[in-house]
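My convention is simple: the sequence line spells out the residues, with the fold written below as integer tokens. I include a record here:
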Amino acid sequence: MSKQSLISLKNVFPSVADDFFTPWSEWFQRNNIFNQDTVPALNVSDEKDEYIVTVAAPGLEKSDFDIRVNENVLTISAASEKENEGNEKNYRRREYSYSTFSRTITLPPDVNKEGIEGKYDKGILTLHLPKNDNGKTGTEKTIHVS
């Protein structure tokens, strides 16, 4: 196949030709096969007096979290924006990083919504959801993360 026929193939089918001649590592990055934004892992344990919810969310700050309870639904969300700037030799670069996620959990009726507490330490968000006996439902509550 001559160089001229490759050029005309690329004009007719640009993405096919690009994909064929692109190194594998660049192809995976461009097509987001292994570089997808992911939702953090969430674990819930049922203890005697409380439920404990843990979320693996490294690289965030306490202030990035928005945690709310509305009726019997717990919503954990976070948004983070970071900017890196560098000057090296003749290069100047400026990179922006944005990440967001949101997880929703339906709470069992025995959660005391007024007693929910949150803590963020070393990349792990831990929520303590105390149990009560009356199964009372509330309207809406925002949880402060310490």
About this structure: Residues 31-36 have pLDDT under 50 and may be disordered.
